[in-house]
Design brief:
It holds the Pfam family LolA. InterPro entries: LolA/LolB/LppX, OM_lipoprot_carrier_LolA-like. It is globular and about 50 Å long. Strands 7-8-9-10-11-1-2-3-4-5-6-12 form a twelve-stranded mixed beta sheet, covered by helices on one side. A hairpin with a 2-residue loop joins strand 2 and strand 3. The chain starts with a helix and ends with a strand. The protein has one domain: Clam (outer membrane lipoprotein receptor (LolB), chain A). 28% of the residues are buried. It contains two helices and twelve strands.
Amino acid sequence: MKKVLALLALSVTMAHAASAQQDPKAGKILDQMSAKYQAMKAFKANFTQTLENDAAKVKENLTGDITVSGQKFRIKLNGQEIINNGQTMWTYMKAENEVNISDFDPDEQEVSPTQIFTLYKKGYKYTYVQETKEAGEACDVIELSPENKDNPVFKVRLTVSKVDKSVKSWKMFKKNGNRYTYTIRKFQPNPPIDATTFNFDKTKYKGVKVIDLR
């Protein structure tokens, strides 16, 4: 459960602490990008996740979608559904027709889906890398490095559109040799959401086995 959350890097919080070590050009782009997403009440995105590990000769592609509103999120990926209402988290495994319930503690996550657009604001150094093109669109590439050397993620690269400051993709580099690339395929700002969006409705999962880990 925590591993899946750590891989999804998709939003919003924390206060900006600039220092002499930070790249001002990168900081300006990141601030513009972050402001764009924080202005939304919610967003939904379809994405492709690519896992690569050269030593293990692994390359895998998965598709999923995520809906985020503040500290709440709902993720569907590879037969799993993770629902978080800011306090409680449900992890549903389709193959087993089983749901695990736990308290949500964002401090236990390497990278929470609600942090990716403000990750740079606390505990990370950032530098401008280069200009590039993604799907024919001009973009800026920015690299984030965690100040905590015990972090299993040692680098994150964000690719941000020059046109509208949206995140087109990001790549997480882990010390175990795994690289995870998330490419946004479709993005919807302010999708319709209701009280059921970020809560698990047992009645919609016939015969589901409930395991309460709280």
